[in-house]
Amino acid sequence: MKANGIIVAAALGAAAPGCATITSTEIQSVSVTTVAADGQPVERASCSLRNDKGTWKIEAPGFVGVSRSAEDLLVECRKEGRPDGFLRAVSRAAAGMFGNIIFGGGIGAIIDHSKGTGYDYPTTLAVKMGESVVVDRRDEQSAAGQGATGVGAAIRDW
């Protein structure tokens, strides 16, 4: 009887989402682009990204690794002859965070929260020069699912 209990526990552990500390890193790579009001790309804009874990500099377009955090990521881009662009990337809890709460209790969730590994930012940050915009990972997921048809689309649209 004990062997069956161990097998069931192992199966549940394998099927459950893992601790975000184990399944993701503290660093997330994001893409930064800059565009003018007319939608044309703005090359070589100097951008600064910051949250409570640090500050990063990049020349857009490009990729940069930022520390994950429960705090939003603030982006400011400058280019001579153009108005500055501002972007707020909303931090959202990752799936591993919910797995910690449901299956592991609060200890793993507390660790993931403090390290930032339980959170994600949108992966693409398009800064519009002369504007202040907010981007959210939920919007990326919605855009990816808009082509869905059938039952999945019906459930999503419900």
Describe this structure in words.
With 158 residues, the chain is α+β, with helices and mostly antiparallel strands. The chain has a single domain, classed as Immunoglobulin-like (Sandwich). The protein has helices at 2-15, 20-23, 95-104, 106-115, 137-145, 151-157, and strands at 27-35, 45-51, 54-60, 62-67, 73-78, 85-89, 92-93, 119-120, 124-128, 132-135. Strands 3-2-5-6-10 form a five-stranded mixed sheet, with no helix packed on it. A three-stranded mixed sheet has the order 4-1-9, with no helix packed on it. Strands 7-8 form a two-stranded antiparallel ribbon. The longest helix is centred in the N-terminal third of the chain and has 14 residues, at 2-15. The protein is globular. 27% of the residues are buried.
What would you say about this model in short?
With 158 residues, this protein is α+β, with helices and mostly antiparallel strands. The protein has helices spanning 2-15, 20-23, 95-104, 106-115, 137-145, 151-157, and strands at residues 27-35, 45-51, 54-60, 62-67, 73-78, 85-89, 92-93, 119-120, 124-128, 132-135. Helix 3 (95-104) runs antiparallel to helix 4.
